[in-house]
Amino acid sequence: MINDFNYLKPGSVKEAFEMYAEHDDCKVICGGQSLLIVMRQGMVAPEYLLDIKGLDELRYIKYDEKDGLRIGATTTHREIEKSPVIQEKYPVLALMENKLASIQTRNWGTIGGNLAHADPAGDPAPVLIALNANIKVGGINGERTMPLEDFFKDYFETALEKGELVLEVHVPVPPPKTAVVYQKFNLLDSDMGIVAVAASITLNGDDTCKDARIVLGNAAPIPKRVKNAEDLLKDKKFDEKLFEEAGKISYEESEPVADIHASEEHRRHLLSVLTKRMIKKAWEQARAVA
Amino acid sequence: MSTEIKELKYSTFKTNVKYSVINTKVHNVDGIAKVTGRAQYTFDIKLPGMLYGKILRSPHPHARIINIDTSRAMELPGVKAVVTGKDTLGIKQGIWRRYEELCDEQILPLEKVRYIGEPVAAVAAVTEEIAEKALDLIDVEYEVLPAVFEPLDAIKKDAPVIHEGVERNVNVTRHIEWGDVDEAFAEAEKNGGYIREDWFRCSGQHHMCMETRAAVSSYTPEGKLTVWASTQSAYYTQALLAGVLGMREGDVRVIATYVGGGFGGKFELDAAMFCSAVLSKKLCKPVKIVFTREEDLVATKRRTPMYYYVRTAMSRDGQLLARESRMFSNGGAYTGMGATALYLSGFFHSFPYKWKAYRYDGYRVYTNTMPSTSMRGFGAPQAMFCSEQQIEWMCADLGLDPYEVRRKNAHTECYEVPGQAFIQSCGMTECIDKIEEWVKSKGDLGPNRAIGISSCGFMSGGIFNWFDSPYSFSSAVVTINNDGTVELHVGCQDIGQGSNTTMAIIAAETLGVKIEDIKGHSGDTDHCPADLGAWGSRQTLMAGNAVKMACEDAKKQLLEFAYAEMGLNIVYDLDIKDRWVHVIARPERGMKYEDLVKKAIRAKDGQRIVGRGYYTPHRKGMISPAYSYMMQAVDAEVDPETGKIKIHEIMTAHDCGQPINPLGLVGQLEGAASMALGYAYLEDLPMDEGKLLNPNLVDYKVIRAPEMPKTGMIDIETYEAEGPYGAKEAGEGLTNPTAAALGNAIFHALGIQMKELPLTPERILKALREKKEKEANK
């Protein structure tokens, strides 16, 4: 049963900052798809809940050909999934959102809430890190921006300081000849991933690899980049043996935890298979883009 | 010496009668009330002055209760009562009432707890929150005892004793045998037959009803108790509650108008019913207890996990010669319905084949885990997983056509399973023919993909009376009002499967009226006749026969009057169809049903027309009055790198006799497919030292809409002489073949033999690795 709490509903971002600064033992709720589960299990029992979901100032999807994509924190998963500009410019984001839980959850859950919850099995983080995204956070003392990769610190822990909220995600314009793909492994469609892999491949004019970003989901306390695998690919030509090698690096460098859904060994194995497959898929797609 | 197989040479006939209501697509008679939220489930019941109850549960798998101190909890404002075993009569109860030693469960035990989650105390308070808080204030002193969790450990000589005096923790044994098994194996060996043996492990499964266990009990100073309960049998609940409370059955009224699912898990007495009744009796106030999903998962009962050893002899040309099987089931802490599952698993393990020699030894073993019980299929899904895979492997080993082998050995109509059962209608051979045709029409499916098949059958209700009911198994009363509307009172229980609709169809067909003329009344022991309830796929046949008989009785009274009224020659027959009373030979000659009813009631001195019907099976063997048959094909693809399964399609050729409601039948088919597929590759109840590791719907995976494959059914028409209008069961049997068929699909797709459920990616990859190693060593 969920313990009683005091409910705070700010009317503006400014008021949210003030309320958050004023109240100790306060949790931010922005949809509640993650928070309410742990509250119901009694793992979290805050005295105050600060509900920022109604803050329409933070509910936007903006795209500019130079600046890239900016998504406000209270934008829902469903809005991202259904956004025509995201479907056109960042299809991997829309596809990822399409498999993020149920439609009911996507209609209510928000991108800011998802990232701030910092569940290592969360879907958006690996994709956004592969897309080289930044995150803007802020509080009563001002705003700051950091690479999303640096935002995650540990299981359910982020770089957010006391009194800070997630405000915006910024995704730069991808370099030419770049493709980003994502796949999670699960037994139920749209369920949380047992493990997941996002891969971004950028090709040179001669179809050799210019840059690669490979991010593992649910393979470590935080979304994990496999830089050794990325380096392995650079300047190389399309080579399935090479992709298998990269997969082996994921196998070795990941730190998955066993639970009832899969053993550690099985998770490592799945990460190696998905790494191999995602590199190949991204490479093939990158060839096709201008 | 082998037993003579009796085969009578007469044929079950198919009628050419045109029905008006039967086999038409009738929407659920409760459908509108349910989808508009008017239907009141136990969860929705709210009474004046009602209190809320919560249950304190054992954290230990096995412990002696030294002391329970409830004083701190009683001091909490808002708490009205706290009860423990000492506030009860301490009666050991069980649903196998005829057998005292199997009545082994005290809900709120006095001496020991035997599984994690077992109730030890219950609180009633003015709010649910206060009741929950009070649980933390109950101090229980335990002496923790050594515990055992697996049947193969619990049966060992030095294992902890779970129930005093029960040697080696063996709760029940079941022996089924016919023919000379040893001689048949010896002969098979001598003649160069093929003998194969395998071990299998079948997992448990949670019933996962949409409505968790719930009860509202209201005891009044007049000494009467009314209980709204989520139950599969209002009558069982009434009788069991009366027993443990020391009341007369007639002083206990159980109401179960709407029930959100049962699947075999809700016809025993549960802690919601018992604790709310004990609390209400103490306070003379209504008390409501609704289990949380976690409580439902942790502390109710589950599908029986089974270890199966199977040894089978087959001749080189595919004749099944002999089988001997041993089964050890994880009984958990108490008997429940497990004793029946033990028997039925062993019986259906022989299905649907004509074994000349067959032996089954089943051992149900107590462990310190949540009890196991019946669940849709009643032990047969486990039995088929082992049997149908082994037969498929033997066919492959011998290079035989698996369809031909199954056809050669299949049950046929009017066959006697020696000493066990007499089978009248049977469409097994036709099921095999149709599925073979369908599979062959699919052609080549590409790599890592194949279709697996499994045949099976199931009972249409059990011929068992371990409950020791003095009443007919099913009863019905039909009353015709002056305006022609019909009150149908049945004891059979609608738990979402649509029995109210099935009974209304049978009543409308028999009386010759429209479905909307029937007002059904069920789920209330004060107003409906006793009936054993919804289990063992029994209601369509048993309650259906009772309803048909009641309606024939009422109709006969009407037609007697019509005969006189119309002044007919004695050679003419009368009938009623679509509210038209007419001469069968000359349908245009007749009168309106409504007019006839008015006249008949006047002629009866103003009495409404009342018909009675009842049914108890007689001279139908030991198991069931009739059997459904089917063959199922599962088209599945496996990713050999990740082990992930994709189910493309499920096709079932199905003999359920005469279908009563095609819409209900499709509902059963699809529901069974999702439940049985979940059992096959997804659902499991992993435990660590008796503690369930996935007591929530995040970690306990059930199939949802996106995973649901396309399903189809080929109806095999037979007529079952014992069933109403030729009908047989269609409820549980459809869960039986799926795990085996999926296992066989994986076998043909990847060449691996899966002996453990569920068929997880990890197990598939392990089997693939072992296969590779084996090939490398060759």
Task: Explain what the structure shows.
The complex is a heterodimer of chains A (290) and B (778). Chain A has 290 residues and is α+β, with helices and mostly antiparallel strands. In chain A, 35% of the residues lie in helices and 25% in strands. Chain A contains 11 helices and 14 strands. In chain A, the strands form 4 sheets. In chain A, strands 4-5-10-6-7 form a 5-stranded antiparallel sheet. Chain A has a 4-stranded antiparallel sheet with strand order 11-12-13-14, sandwiched between helices. With 778 residues, chain B is α+β, with helices and mostly antiparallel strands. Chain B is 28% helix and 25% strand. Chain B is built from 18 helices and 32 strands. Chain B has a 7-stranded mixed sheet, with helices on both faces. Chain B is globular and about 90 Å long. Chain A binds chain B through residues 1, 37, 41, 185, 187-192, 260-263, 266, 269-270, 273, and chain B through 128-129, 132, 641-642, 644, 681-682, 684, 686, 693-694, 696, 698-699, 701, 703-704, 706-707, 761-762, 765.
